[in-house]
Amino acid sequence: MTAQIDDGLWDEFHKAVNMTSRELREWLSVEAAGENSEEVPDQAGRPLGRQVLEILGKRRTDLTGSDAEAMRRVVEIVGSQHPEGTDPKAGGADWRHGLMDIGHDPLKE
Prior knowledge:
The chain is mainly α. The chain is built from 5 helices and no strands.
């Protein structure tokens, strides 16, 4: 089932997610790679990050209600953890990596 995504959510999501699908895919693969992990590449990373990656690969008209909810969650998380005007280096590595897990690199313009 497709969902109607309004312009506001669409714009806010694409402002919050400032990593390309390629950057996010590579990040999720690297982040999930560990000494004892054997993740399947398409399943690397946290579920929300994987869903963001799927959303980036879809046309707007193909987005589902679940996609819309994930988009809202990403916008909310980025807005609360990295409000506009915040120094991009304000948090530590864990803070940055947590945001990158959902497609937002605070050090990227």
